[in-house]
Amino acid sequence: MKHTIVVPRRIKIGPFSYDIKLVRGLRYYNGASGHITFEGGTVELDDVVREPMKSCHFLHEMVHAIDINASVGLDEDGVDRMANGFAELLQQLGIKLDYSALPCGRSHGGN
Ligand SMILES: [Zn+2]
Description:
By secondary structure, the chain is α/β, with parallel strands linked by helices. Helices cover 37% and strands 28% of the residues. The protein has one domain (3-105). It starts with a strand and ends in a 6-residue tail after the last strand.
């Protein structure tokens, strides 16, 4: 049985809130298909990327947010491995993420 979870426009991790949005072609002018700005509290995902990669990118940025909040100290490879593990877990549980509620707009820039 499949379950669909709608990704909300805003996610709070500890005291920090992140506005989640889609950006068409983000990879072409940012060099990555997802990124998070901690100061601005934004997570951007390339709208063009399809599943299951889109969820890998989303989970990657969320692991960054969790890592910062919990002061875990993961490096980029560690973030990737954790995100891929969460992606696999969701898949095994039959959970599909739905990005249709997210706004699609322009990038704020950042890393
Ligand atoms: Zn990263």
